[in-house]
Amino acid sequence: MKLINRSGFAVLPRQPFVDWASQQLDELNQPMSLDEHRAEGSVYLTEEFHSETDVSQQLALHYENIFANELAAWEEFGDHWPQNRTLELFLQWFDVTPQVLAVDLLQAPLMLAPLED
């Protein structure tokens, strides 16, 4: 077991995201219920949190990238994304839970694969 020098956000979709995703259906994306979406949540690692202020700052700094990543899973090119992707809208669409510690339970090294250039 190894402690990783990161904190993070567990992100689970809420009904407004599910409603939007249901409008993006194609041969790869089929309708899913809220429970089905929430069974496939994401964790986004960030700088370590040391205070509530850190949590707020990190969320303000990273919510746009998290929002874009979640939307891109359903509509890759952004043609049908909400126009004003504010922090307020993000929090209406997703439950976000800060995670203070990140622990790697495996002995194998982490694989790092950048999602952007």
Mean pLDDT: 92
Q: If strands are numbered along the chain, what order do they take across the biggest sheet?
A: 3-2-4
Output the number of helix runs.
Answer: 4
Unreliable parts: none
The shape is globular
Largest sheet: 3 strands, antiparallel
Q: Quick one: how many beta strands?
A: 5
Order of helices and strands: EEHHEHHEE
Structural class: alpha+beta
Helix content: 25-40%
In whole angstroms, the N-to-C terminal distance is: 31 Å
User: Radius of gyration, Cα only, in angstroms?
Assistant: 15 Å
Strand content: 15-25%
Characteristic key phrases:
117 residues, alpha+beta, three-stranded antiparallel sheet, two-stranded antiparallel ribbon, globular
Description:
The protein has four helices and five strands. The protein has a three-stranded antiparallel beta sheet. Strands 1-5 form a two-stranded antiparallel ribbon. 34% of the residues lie in helices and 21% in strands. It is globular, with a radius of gyration of 15 Å. The model has no long low-confidence stretch (mean pLDDT 92). It has 117 residues and is of the alpha+beta class.
Write a brief structural summary.
The protein has about 120 residues and is of the alpha+beta class. The protein contains four helices and five strands. It is globular and about 40 Å long.
